[in-house]
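can u do me a favor
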């Protein structure tokens, strides 16, 4: 049975999962406590998590969305996205997500109904203490996508 529940305290107990989506703990520390965190479990086993922050009146941002690697491509990420859209629909008109220019993550968000918003050049090279690679490509720019709710 799939359950998605909020996590209000001890969020760092899920650090291994959070690091799948954002591989530098100091960057996670910038948003973890001010964000709302949700954990998806299936048959009492944690499969994924999501952290969402309020960025302005009616604007929320998915800061971290992760699914355990052995459970990826089984619908858990899409389930979390559907939950987030439903959970925030009454107080949010725009949902943002920032991600690397990666062939692994961008298509997922597009399939979930997000469209291109803007780009922050050199975000990953300027803010992370090591090069980040995903899908064989070094991430440099932060690509923001948006979805109207």
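np, heres the sequence
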């Amino acid at each position: 049975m799939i359950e998605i529940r909020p996590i209000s305290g001890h969020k760092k107990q899920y650090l291994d999962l959070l690091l799948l989506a954002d591989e530098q703990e100091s960057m996670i520390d910038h948003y973890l406590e001010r964000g709302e965190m949700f954990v998806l479990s299936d048959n009492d086993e944690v499969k994924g998590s999501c952290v969402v922050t309020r960025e302005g009146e009616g604007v929320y941002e998915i800061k971290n969305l992760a699914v355990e690697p052995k459970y990826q491509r089984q619908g858990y990420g899409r389930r979390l996205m559907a939950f987030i859209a439903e959970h925030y629909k009454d107080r949010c008109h725009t949902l943002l997500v920032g991600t690397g220019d990666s062939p692994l993550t961008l298509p997922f968000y597009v399939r979930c109904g997000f469209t291109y918003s803007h780009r922050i050049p050199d975000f990953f090279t300027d803010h992370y203490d090591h090069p980040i690679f995903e899908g064989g490509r070094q991430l440099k720019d932060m690509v923001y996508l948006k979805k109207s709710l």
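The chain has a mean pLDDT of 95. hope that helps!!
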